[in-house]
Amino acid sequence: MSNKIIIVWLILLTAWVGFDSHTESGNRQLRRQKFEEIYANMNTIEKYLNNKSQVDFTVSTIQELTKGFLLTQATQNKHLTGIKFTGRVINTLSVKRKNVIFKLTVANVSKEFTINQISSGNSTGFSVYIPDIKLEDARFAEIQYINALVSYLAT
Fold first, then answer.
1. Are residues 65 and 120 part of one domain?
2. 122 — alpha (psi -120 to 50), left (phi > 0) or beta?
3. What's the DSSP call for residue 139?
4. How far, rounded to the nearest angstrom, does the alpha carbon of residue 44 sit from its chain's CA centroid?
């Protein structure tokens, strides 16, 4: 089962448990508030599932990128006036890649970053700072592979 589907089920299960407990208490205002939270979560989930190159920076498990790359240990933290995104990119192909360029897009702001080298089957960490965005707008981001030099082993 993909990470995206697991995320959807966890969000829905968490929201439903909270909704069900407020339903039993009979508090109409709390039920309405919980329903609005569930609806907002559904809209967020729909956007997430429709964009195949989007990753969730609140999930530290492995997430798929494109072109033979995976993302793991994704985090986001407030830093100065914006958000610092960190993680590790895994190279799943049998070739070494050098000067790997990615573009991170979040809240309609993009920034390119370069990873010097990722050997075959290994991972390398990255850190990208994007100023002037809020933490609540930075959960989902798109990480797009741009370019790299490829090294093959000669036998």
1. yes
2. beta
3. S
4. 13
DSSP class of 49? H
Distance, CA of 142 to CA of 155 (rounded, Å): 37
Helix (H) or strand (E) holding 144: strand 140-151
CA distance linking residue 59 with residue 104, whole number of Å = 16
- In the block, tokens 């966890």 appear at 10
CATH for 80: 2.60.40.1620
In a shared domain, residues 39 and 60: no
Parent domain of 15: 3-50
Q: What is the pLDDT of residues 82-119, one digit of tens each?
A: 999 999 999 999 899 999 999 999 999 999 999 999 99
Same domain, 38 and 68: no
pTM of the model: 0.68
Per-residue model confidence as pLDDT tens digits over 59-70: 889 999 989 999
| CA distances from residue 155 to 57, 92, 122, 152 in whole angstroms, order as listed | 40, 21, 21, 9
Regarding whether 71 and 87 lie in a shared domain, the answer is yes
